[in-house]
Amino acid sequence: MRYARLLSVVAVILAVSACGGDDAPAVSTPDSSEVSSEVFFQDLASEWSAAQVDSRSYGVRIAFNGSSSVGEVFAEISYPGYDCAGTLTLLEIDGVSVTARETIIVNPGDICSDDGLVHLIRSESSLRYDWSYSTGELADTATLFPG
Question: pLDDT, tens digit, for every residue of 73-105?
């Protein structure tokens, strides 16, 4: 009995939504990259950090520069425990997450690989940081907080 009533309600909703006619206002859908950029970068603090990455003895700090365009450097990244630093170039924006190419400029080499991708996922009060090799193999994760 419940299922029949539920099906009736669904049928009515579908019928009403299908009857929009020519007088129904047009709904515009913004470009997904515009929406994604606004979501990830909206009210984003300029600096984020984590004292420890995974169970290792180094931290990570990211300083955003205000850019939100694919193909541009949008942040500086540093690893204070390793005395390495570089830039993040935006590759992809997808809702509340971004993927970036990391380029180590200060002390590239054995300790800080210059062959990495950084994936950041934004939540209400933190950023999840995932570092992977260019092959996609995940190597490190951390939770970053403002400041």
Answer: 999 999 988 889 999 999 999 888 999 999 999
Residues 10, 32, 145, 81, Cα dihedral to 10°: 140
The answer to whether 105 touches 115, Cβ cutoff 8 Å, is: no
| Distance of alpha carbon 27 from alpha carbon 24, whole angstroms | 9
Nearest Cα residue to 67 out of 99, 33, 90 = 90
Amino acid present at 50: A
Cα separation, 85 vs 77, in Å, equals: 6
10: left (phi over 0), alpha (psi -120 to 50) or beta: alpha
Structure tokens at 33: 């990259």
d(CA 37, CA 98): 9
